[in-house]
Amino acid sequence: MNTNGNTYTVIYSIVLVVLVAAILAFVAMSLQDKQNENVKKETITKVLNAATQTDESLTIDETTDVLKLYSEKITEAFYVDGNGNIAGKMDMGKDDVTKIQVPSTSDLKKQNDILKKIDGTEDEAARAALLESLRLPVFIFDINGRAITVIPCYGAGLWGPIWGYIALAEDGKTIDGAIFDHKGETPGLGSKIAEPAFYIDRFKGKSLGSGETIFSIEKGKHEDNPHCVDAISGATITSRALGKGINLWTKYCMPYLEKAAAAVTDSCAARTCIPATAIEAADSTAAADTTVTGQINQMEE
Q1: What are the extents of the domains in the chain?
Q2: Is 221 helix (H, G, I), strand (E, B) or coil?
């Protein structure tokens, strides 16, 4: 074959392209398991970060064995539909941490697409079917004897998807922690949603409301509004988009959250629960009575 001819050049180029494509495909397939494992660890790290923000003794960094910590702290992990019913369980890795199951961001996107369809559907039968098809992830952790519920959120930012996880107290409304991430928001502006100064300082202590606007992120000062946080200066679009994502996901998680909160209240009432402050007061009174009794006995002797 004439190596200087056009035919040789075309054949050579085709062979080279096919060979390179085959090598890249092989490498991608070889690394797929590792990539999936890294994605899972990243998700677990974020869920744990949100859940443990009430416990200052628990720090999560690059040295933390997040799989082990997750399996120790998690008590329940499941999916709920739009009616608040449990629709499936996740493996919590209690016997084998490598089997832990958590949804990826692509899974969250699928659920977000269904949520948007529900919001835009007026037909009752179609809406009911969509509500039943929802699979919204819910994680429950035992953090210092408290049941902390973590739910995700997802939305469209200025340049790409934004997502995160919100930790709620036993009442299903008070925010005990939060963490957010993004794919391509503007560095130094919208990207600040992934910084602790935003998701810890502004969210902790806030709460979910009711109605169509359960939670929002708006420009201005909102210290006095328990259901709203201040938008990031210079990143109003990203901030509001995150607020809309939180509002959409919490709205459809609310049926479950309300059922769970009611169950806790009913269980507490059945056991005639005593508030911790009352127990502390009783302990103090008992200690004082013991001291007085001891002093009287010494006087009598």
Answers
A1: 44-270
A2: coil
Q: Can you tell me the distance from the alpha carbon of 36 to that of 100, in angstroms, rounded to the nearest whole number?
A: 12
Q: Which amino acid, one-letter code, is at 240? A: R
- Which residue, among 258, 249, 238, has the nearest Cα to 114 in the 3D structure? 249
Enter the tokens of residue 191.
């990207």
- Rounded to whole angstroms, how far apart are CA atoms 192 and 41? 22
Could you say which DSSP state residue 173 is in? S
In the chain, what is the greatest distance between 2 CA atoms, to the nearest angstrom? 122
Q: What are phi and psi of 88, to 5 degrees?
A: 160, 155
pLDDT tens, 249-295? 999 999 999 999 988 777 666 665 555 444 444 455 444 454 444 44
pTM of the model: 0.79
Tokens of 207: 């709460």
Q: How many helices (H) and strands (E) does the chain have?
A: 7, 8
* 3-state SS assignment for residue 278: helix
Half-sphere exposure of 128 (CA within 13 A, CB side): 3
Strand order in the sheet with 161-168: 86-89, 74-80, 136-143, 146-156, 161-168, 175-182
Per 3-state DSSP, the chain is made up of helix, strand and coil in percentages (nearest 5) of 50, 20, 30
Mean pLDDT of the chain: 86
Q: Which residues are within 8 A (CB) of 73 and not within 5 positions of it... i.e. 6 or more apart?
A: 48, 51, 52, 141, 142, 143
Its sign, for the CA torsion 33, 138, 212, 198, is: negative
Three-state SS at 78: strand
Question: For residues 218 and 240, is the Cβ–Cβ distance under 8 A?
Answer: yes
* Measured distance CA(230)–CA(220) in Å, rounded: 6
- Phi, psi (5° rounding) for residue 141? -115, 150
